């Protein structure tokens, strides 16, 4: 496909995406408009009638995706804080969605995250009995507030509580979040972007990596043509194209040229998506210690080893396939320094593994390769598949989370810090669960047997990873041994994020599956 | 049901095919057997231990005795049987994502085959025409097809190295040893019991690992224990193994 | 015929099950139940049959189909003719098939390409098939095949071989996505793969002398050319702690 055809397609799709009917944070992450602070609230529906009245009020201020339209001056068209709403399956039952509609939801969503624990590998310290108190309760409704400042978030929070009170307390705000000072029963989960020593947003997470660099790009995103390199799907001839919108939005064609499985009526599903909410605790002290210990035996710097874990260097996110070692990193940095903004963006995302089939640069168990193998599952057999990235295109997820907690130099594992991981996809089973199950906690697709992804794998202290080296160099690969669990799940669930119209229909109680 | 044996899944799909077209399928299969490029996608997917397509002409179902009624069928039937790694959805999906054209080629002549893209009709087609396996056995439940293949490569390399390095001084030995690991760096994945890839896999695992008191046999419609045979006369068990050389022992 | 490929062979057996009852259960349902009650992995009778890679048992109850088969996928003249006369539409309607027998299907992938290999394999099935089911009862192979048509004539291993050959179907396309080495060879290779990985991990960064000494001990222990032992057992489902 030529780039002009791609651009034309993107333009057409852009026109057909009704941004004002899609909830905010879906088409474009809130981080882009300076919403660096967040609160996540979870409610139980006690009185469906009053709950619908509450939702009707809230729906008036639910933030949509219009700010993602690049033609508009975004900051002026959005308020200082956002509000978004999503339901668990139990929540949809509690709000009395008709059975005909309920039955159309996918089975994994209906089961909820806890019942999928064996598929997700949520065992040991990630098992549901260790989750925050709130996940020991039945959660129905998720309401998120993102804002420019904590004060903005607080103001919106009070507004939401008022709406509930004024509509007869149909819903109950559930407590049970763990907090930084050892609290067990906080009323909400906070999240906030981490800042560097100068107080500027760093875009990093607690292990020190820059996060959220190559989120998928799909048709209809206003900026798709500019950002597609390395973030869309890989076609023959190393060309990139945006993914089909139906991979992330219900009611739109997906990569299999069909509409994703969704409930009836169509208007209930239209412009909705499914969200995976997971509180991922990071064992920061364990991570730092393990990195130090392993670096002592590693041929290369500690930062290079950290880059091997992830596939990106920690300081500026340089992809390790283009900056494969300490010397290569210096060259890359020099080019990066000299580049303009567009070129910088390209350098961070525009790569693949065609020249790294053996994993000598980005290891087979490295985070980036496992999360999005791009064209590498063809293992160099060009033309074997329909397109080079055929096995990856339907496994992509949009990541919309934020870090929570702090991790100073003296932090320990017990501190409450990590990432509020929020993934959006059209099929939780085919996309998020598959990646978690096959690529994070297992390695067969990468010909690595049961070896898990290094950073997120549900390690037990026995597992290993192979850091491959240049084939034919005569050097042995480096083995990471006795991998501890760096990241633990502390709770979460699966949510349906309806489009704005659908939300209003649910709130009005007029969903008609006929 | 027991479609799962460790890392392997047993799929059986039986679909009708018009007798007058089944020769096309046979011809295609013959071609595919002789043309390795035709199967490149399948080989690269590397999810399959062994798979087969069996076409039964409508008058060729096994008939063993005059007491057995002869089948009278309108269509030929194609049985597809596969031993693959991963979950059902992963396998079916990978086929349609990666090698849709190949799939269509093999199934095209089957009655009401929906084509491999879009996915849902193809899912339904396979799911509706799939027959569950009662008992499934894999000689290596902890190994995927990838592991079996890479183990062969590794065993050869290990033996070659051991022979070549014999009697060498330690530093030369080390150079060779590092070269061995370098050459084998993509063959060193750990093999462990399969992770749970589906709720069905969880069920199979639970049944197999349950305590004897808890694990129940599969009960028939009307019995709580094995019924007494009342038809065939009881028979003698097979004779003892021919000889010790014919009866290999595994240690 | 394409039953073989790369050292492996595909065996597809369809044994018709007698129409009739054992007590109040049809022979086919009884056969189904017996197959369901075979324990898996190491405890499967197939673990005792030499050179069985992967094998399965199921009961084909009918040539079920998701709906009535529809018309031809390419041109169907009946559809065109029905413009003129209704009877052509009727003629073009799909037909429904029903099997008159239910079939026990045994499908195996095993090592060996020749006809003699097949005979030997079938003979081993007869001789070595021995297992204890989920009820704790021990059975031979007759327990599974007993209710098949004409199986009562099977009195010896040779009878069994010729019986099975009568039930065997030709494969139209056999895809060998693995390799066709003997099972003992495959299992030994898997064992060595696991052991070499562990050796490499345990000796990372050690001195040349240490590694060389350890290597000799390693070879003495794993005996790479000895296919009998140490090795993985057929059907082994857990990692043994050594």
Automatic annotation (TrEMBL), chain A:
<keyword id="KW-0575">Peroxidase</keyword>
<dbReference type="GO" id="GO:0046872">
    <property type="term" value="F:metal ion binding"/>
</dbReference>
<protein>
    <submittedName>
        <fullName>Multifunctional dye peroxidase DyP2</fullName>
        <ecNumber>1.11.1.16</ecNumber>
    </submittedName>
</protein>
<dbReference type="GO" id="GO:0005829">
    <property type="term" value="C:cytosol"/>
</dbReference>
<dbReference type="InterPro" id="IPR006314">
    <property type="entry name" value="Dyp_peroxidase"/>
</dbReference>
<keyword id="KW-0408">Iron</keyword>
<dbReference type="Pfam" id="PF21105">
    <property type="entry name" value="DyP_N"/>
</dbReference>
<feature type="domain" description="DyP dimeric alpha+beta barrel">
    <location>
        <begin position="22"/>
        <end position="176"/>
    </location>
</feature>
<dbReference type="GO" id="GO:0020037">
    <property type="term" value="F:heme binding"/>
</dbReference>
<dbReference type="InterPro" id="IPR049509">
    <property type="entry name" value="DyP_N"/>
</dbReference>
<dbReference type="GO" id="GO:0052750">
    <property type="term" value="F:reactive-black-5:hydrogen-peroxide oxidoreductase activity"/>
</dbReference>
<dbReference type="InterPro" id="IPR011008">
    <property type="entry name" value="Dimeric_a/b-barrel"/>
</dbReference>
<keyword id="KW-0479">Metal-binding</keyword>
<keyword id="KW-0560">Oxidoreductase</keyword>
From TrEMBL, chain B:
<feature type="region of interest" description="Disordered">
    <location>
        <begin position="205"/>
        <end position="251"/>
    </location>
</feature>
<feature type="compositionally biased region" description="Polar residues">
    <location>
        <begin position="230"/>
        <end position="251"/>
    </location>
</feature>
<protein>
    <submittedName>
        <fullName>Uncharacterized protein</fullName>
    </submittedName>
</protein>
UniProtKB/TrEMBL annotation, chain C:
<protein>
    <submittedName>
        <fullName>Uncharacterized protein</fullName>
    </submittedName>
</protein>
């Amino acid at each position: 496909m030529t780039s002009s055809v791609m651009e034309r397609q993107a333009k057409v799709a852009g026109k057909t995406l009704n941004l004002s009917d899609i909830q905010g944070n879906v088409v474009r992450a809130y981080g882009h408009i300076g919403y660096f602070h967040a609160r996540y609230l979870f409610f139980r529906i006690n009185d469906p009638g009053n709950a619908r009245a509450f939702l009707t009020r809230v729906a008036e201020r639910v933030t949509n995706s219009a700010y993602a339209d690049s033609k508009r001056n975004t900051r002026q068209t959005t308020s200082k804080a956002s509000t978004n709403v999503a339901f668990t399956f139990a929540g949809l039952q509690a709000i009395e969605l008709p059975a005909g509609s309920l039955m159309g939801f996918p089975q994994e969503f209906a089961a909820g995250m806890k019942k999928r624990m064996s598929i997700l590998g949520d065992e040991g310290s990630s098992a549901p009995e260790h989750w925050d108190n709130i996940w020991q309760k039945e959660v129905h409704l998720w309401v998120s507030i993102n804002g420019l400042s904590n004060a903005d978030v607080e103001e919106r929070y009070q507004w939401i509580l008022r709406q509930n009170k004024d509509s007869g307390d149909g819903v109950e705000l559930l407590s049970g979040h763990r907090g930084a000072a050892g609290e067990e029963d906080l009323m909400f989960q906070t999240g906030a972007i981490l800042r560097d020593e100068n107080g500027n947003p760093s875009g990093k997470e607690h292990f020190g990596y820059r996060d959220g660099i190559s989120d998928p790009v799909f048709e209809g995103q206003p900026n798709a043509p500019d950002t597609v390199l390395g973030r869309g799907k890989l076609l023959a001839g190393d060309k990139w194209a945006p993914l089909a919108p139906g991979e992330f939005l219900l009611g739109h064609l997906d990569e299999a040229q069909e509409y994703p499985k969704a409930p009836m009526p169509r208007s209930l599903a239209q412009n909705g998506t499914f969200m995976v909410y997971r509180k991922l605790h990071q064992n920061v002290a364990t991570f730092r210690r393990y990195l130090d210990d392993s670096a002592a035996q590693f041929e290369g710097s500690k930062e290079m080893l950290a880059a091997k874990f992830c596939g990106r260097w920690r300081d500026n996110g340089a992809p390790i396939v283009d900056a494969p070692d300490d010397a290569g990193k210096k060259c890359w940095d020099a080019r990066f320094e000299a580049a303009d903004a567009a070129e910088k963006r390209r350098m961070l995302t525009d790569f693949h593994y065609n020249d790294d089939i053996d994993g000598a640069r980005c290891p087979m168990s490295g985070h980036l390769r496992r999360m999005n193998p791009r064209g590498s599952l063809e293992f160099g057999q060009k033309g074997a598949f329909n397109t080079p990235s055929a096995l990856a295109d339907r496994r992509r997820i949009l990541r919309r989370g934020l870090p929570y907690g702090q991790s100073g130099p003296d932090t320990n594992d017990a501190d409450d810090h990590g990432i509020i991981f929020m993934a959006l996809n059209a099929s939780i089973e085919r996309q998020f669960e598959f990646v978690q199950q096959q690529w994070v906690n297992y390695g067969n697709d990468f010909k690595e047997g049961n070896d898990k992804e290094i950073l997120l794998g549900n390690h037990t202290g026995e597992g290993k990873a192979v850091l491959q080296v240049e084939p034919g160099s005569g050097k042995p690969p480096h083995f990471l041994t006795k991998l501890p669990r760096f990241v633990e799940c502390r709770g979460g669930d699966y949510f349906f994020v309806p489009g704005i119209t659908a939300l209003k229909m649910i709130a009005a109680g007029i969903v008609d599956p006929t | 049901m027991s479609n799962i044996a460790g890392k392997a899944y047993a799929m059986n799909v039986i679909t009708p095919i018009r007798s007058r077209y089944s020769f096309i399928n046979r011809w295609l299969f013959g071609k595919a057997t002789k043309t390795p490029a035709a199967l490149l996608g399948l080989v690269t997917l590397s999810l399959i231990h062994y798979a087969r397509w069996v076409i039964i002409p409508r008058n060729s179902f096994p008939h063993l005795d005059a007491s057995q009624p002869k089948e009278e069928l309108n269509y030929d039937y194609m049985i597809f049987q596969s031993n693959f790694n991963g979950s059902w959805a992963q396998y079916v999906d990978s086929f349609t994502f990666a090698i849709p054209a190949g799939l269509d080629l093999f199934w095209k002549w089957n009655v009401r085959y929906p084509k491999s893209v879009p996915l849902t009709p193809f899912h339904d087609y396979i799911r509706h025409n799939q027959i569950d396996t009662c008992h499934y056995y894999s000689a290596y439940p902890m190994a995927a097809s990838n592991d079996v293949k890479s183990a062969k490569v590794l065993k050869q390399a290990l033996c070659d190295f051991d022979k070549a390095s014999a009697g060498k001084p330690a530093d030369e030995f080390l150079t060779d040893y590092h070269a061995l690991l370098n050459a084998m760096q993509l063959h060193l994945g750990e093999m462990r019991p399969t992770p749970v890839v589906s709720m069905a896999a969880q069920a199979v695992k639970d049944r197999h690992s349950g305590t004897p008191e808890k694990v129940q046999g599969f009960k028939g419609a009307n019995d709580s224990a094995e019924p007494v045979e009342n038809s065939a006369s009881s028979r003698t068990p097979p004779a003892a193994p021919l000889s010790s050389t014919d009866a290999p022992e595994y240690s | 015929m394409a039953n073989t490929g790369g050292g492996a062979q595909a065996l597809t057996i369809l044994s018709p099950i007698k129409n009739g009852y054992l007590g109040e259960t049809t022979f086919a349902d009884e056969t189904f139940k017996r197959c369901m009650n075979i324990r898996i992995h190491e405890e499967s009778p197939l673990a005792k049959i030499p050179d069985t890679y992967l094998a399965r048992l199921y009961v084909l109850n009918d040539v079920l189909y998701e709906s009535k088969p529809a018309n031809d996928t390419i041109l169907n003249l009946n559809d065109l003719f029905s413009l003129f006369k209704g009877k052509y539409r009727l003629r073009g309607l799909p037909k429904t098939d029903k099997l008159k027998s239910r079939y026990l299907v045994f499908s195996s992938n095993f090592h060996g390409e020749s006809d003699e290999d097949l005979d030997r394999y079938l003979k081993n099935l007869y001789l070595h098939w021995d297992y204890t089911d989920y009820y704790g009862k021990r059975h031979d192979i007759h327990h599974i095949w007993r209710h098949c048509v004409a199986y009562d004539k099977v009195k010896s291993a040779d009878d069994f071989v010729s019986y099975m050959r009568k039930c065997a179907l030709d494969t139209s396309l056999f895809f060998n996505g693995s390799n066709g080495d003997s099972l003992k060879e495959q299992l030994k290779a898997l064992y060595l793969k696991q052991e070499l990985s562990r050796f490499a991990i345990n000796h990372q960064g050690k001195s040349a002398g240490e590694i060389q000494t350890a290597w000799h001990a390693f070879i003495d222990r794993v005996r790479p050319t000895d296919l009998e032992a140490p090795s993985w057992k057929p059907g082994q489902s857990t990692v043994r702690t050594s």
